[in-house]
Write a structure and sequence with these properties.
Elements: H1 2-25, E1 28-32, H2 40-46, E2 52-56, H3 65-71, E3 74-77, H4 102-118, E4 122-125, H5 127-135, E5 140-141, H6 144-148, E6 160-166, H7 171-176, E7 180-185, E8 190-191, E9 198-203, E10 209-214, E11 222-225, H8 240-252
Parallel strand pairs: 1-2, 1-3, 3-4, 4-11
Antiparallel strand pairs: 5-8, 6-7, 6-9, 9-10, 10-11
Length: about 250
């Protein structure tokens, strides 16, 4: 009798372990290039699906970096410092740039290499949009005020709200259901020449590209915005709908 009870207990324990293990395996892994700030990126994504494992690639131990590149279900290139201009042929213009982080530039190129090799979803925010464009062979406006003027204030005195116009029949038009709307912006650089295989989804009044998507279907999902949807009201059609689409693409490919 005791042996039978013991066997049942062992069976229950094993079942529990396997169940917990199975639940852990079901988590969708999204690799973020760098997590910082007040947790806005995490909240923005987790509101769409709380069963996500979010990993900051920049802060990974070196011996686990290859593992996360090989096991991520999606890649989010986040905001941050300026991209070193030699990446797009303008090293002489470093004087007009802000802070750099060359290691981060290298890590994000590795993330995009992995995403394209493994055919995984990619989303870019602010610097992330610029990085995707540079990765695809595009160039950047090194300093918007000195090049395009100040018709639109993209970041003076910190994050600022300004309107964008959504281009009809693009993925953004379908997701947001609007023709124009306000976004929260904080940048002094932007797309100059569009990278190969990319097209604009939105622009600001000064003509700057504010959102991009892929032409064709090299990846199951590729989208990026120049604004900060993670800092905006979750009710905004230019915020929550983007997170929902990206997370759905990541979860669907598990």
């Amino acid at each position: 009798m005791k042996k039978m009870m013991f066997a049942r207990l062992v069976f229950l324990c094993l079942s529990l372990v396997l169940s917990v293990s199975g639940m852990a395996q079901k988590k969708t892994v999204i690799l973020l290039s760098k997590i910082y700030g007040k947790g806005e990126y995490q909240s923005w994504l987790n509101r769409q699906n709380p069963n996500l494992k979010l990993v900051s690639y920049y802060h990974c131990p070196k011996d686990s970096m290859a593992y996360w590149l090989a096991n991520a279900d999606g890649f989010l290139i986040t905001g941050g410092e300026d991209i070193y201009p030699s990446r797009y042929g303008k090293e002489k213009d470093t004087v007009d740039c802000g802070d750099f982080d060359k290691m981060r530039d290298t890590l994000e190129f590795k993330m995009l290499d992995a995403a394209f090799q493994r055919k995984k979803p990619v989303f870019g925010i602010c610097r992330g949009l610029q990085m995707i464009n540079v990765y695809q062979g595009g160039t950047l406006v090194v300093d918007i005020p000195s090049t395009l003027g100040e018709k639109v204030n993209h970041r003076k005195d910190g994050p600022i709200e300004h309107p964008v116009t959504v281009i009809p029949k693009t993925s953004l038009a379908v997701l947001s259901g609007i023709k124009d709307g306000p976004v929260l912006s904080n940048h002094h650089q932007g797309i100059e020449k569009m990278g190969t295989g990319l097209k604009a989804m939105a622009k600001s009044e000064d003509g700057l590209v504010e959102a991009i998507e892929q032409e064709g279907s090299r990846l199951p999902f590729l989208m990026a915005v120049q604004w900060h949807p993670e800092r905006m009201d979750e009710k905004s059609p230019l915020s929550a709908s983007l997170a929902k689409a990206f997370v759905k693409a990541c979860v669907g490919l598990k």
